[in-house]
Amino acid sequence: MNETFPSEERDVSVSILAKGAKLRGNLNVPADARGLVLFAHGTGSGRHSPRNRYVASVLREGGLATLLLDLLTDEEEAVDLRTRQLRFDIELLAERLVAVTDWLRERPDTGTLGIGYFGASTGAGAALVAAARRPDAVGAVVSRGGRPDLASAALPAVSTPTLLIVGGHDLPVIEMNREALAQLRVEKELVIVPGATHLFEEPGTLEEVARLARHWFERHLSPDR
Q1: Which of 69, 95, 137, 222 has the most CB atoms at less than 10 Å from its CB?
Q2: Domain presence at residue 90
Q3: What is the pTM of this model?
Q4: What is the count of structural domains for the chain?
Q5: Does residue 2 sit within a domain?
């Protein structure tokens, strides 16, 4: 993976009150942004993750604003590392995504931008639930190695174009994504990246994820849609 990143000079550290929790994030809005992508991470893969930062940098090269967000507080992360329960609390994560989406729509610099969700692991399930609750605000969803099956009850209600990306060696997650794909009733696609495992650590695989995500968001978040 390319470990070099464009200048972060436009990064703004933000603190967002969402359902009683103060969430921290890094917001970057390029000049003339054509849309905004909110990253919904699984536990252990937050706003400082090199993988997420790399994908965000590629999206910004396409003129998309990004918000790298921690959906759990530091205290909750510490609890989850012991119990592994909060990462699977899809309702909690989705509620916070909805709250952050509403916060973005109220800001003068992001309020007019179409919003997309980039979800990883359990964050993908939360992203789909949140997209079903804010169909007028969310224009695209991309899942990387995600668990859309965790949003099974909400999948038939999702009206947002959804791209599911899974590694070719991530066999259990491939099957989960195929089952979720069958429940979605919108424009949808499942892409299996050859040679990739769950974290897309193999050479060239994360670059392919970023390329696919950028194309999907550019297509569905363009101002004329």
Answers
A1: 69
A2: yes
A3: 0.91
A4: 1
A5: no
Residue 92 in tokens: 């909690």
Q: Where are the beta strands (DSSP E) in 29-179?
A: 35-40, 64-69, 115-120, 138-144, 162-167
73: CATH: 3.40.50.1820
CA separation for the pair 189, 21 (Å, rounded):
34
Q: What are the angstrom distances between the C-alpha of 209 and each of 59, 111, 172, 201, 215? A: 11, 27, 19, 11, 10
- Separation of alpha carbons 112 and 29, rounded Å: 12
Q: Which domain holds residue 18?
A: 11-221
CA–CA dist 3, 131 (Å, integer) = 31
What would the pLDDT profile of 166-189 be if each residue is shown by its tens digit?
999 999 999 999 999 999 999 999
141 found inside a domain:
yes
Domain assignment of residue 98, yes or no: yes
Judged by DSSP in three states, 126 sits in helix
Number of helical (H) and strand (E) elements in the chain, helices listed first: 6, 8
CB-CB contact of 39 with 19 (8 Å): no
What distance in Å separates the CA atoms of residue 133 and residue 128, rounded to the nearest whole number? 9
Give the 3-state secondary structure of residue 12.
strand
CA distance 167 to 200: 7
- Helix, strand or coil, per DSSP, at residue 70: coil
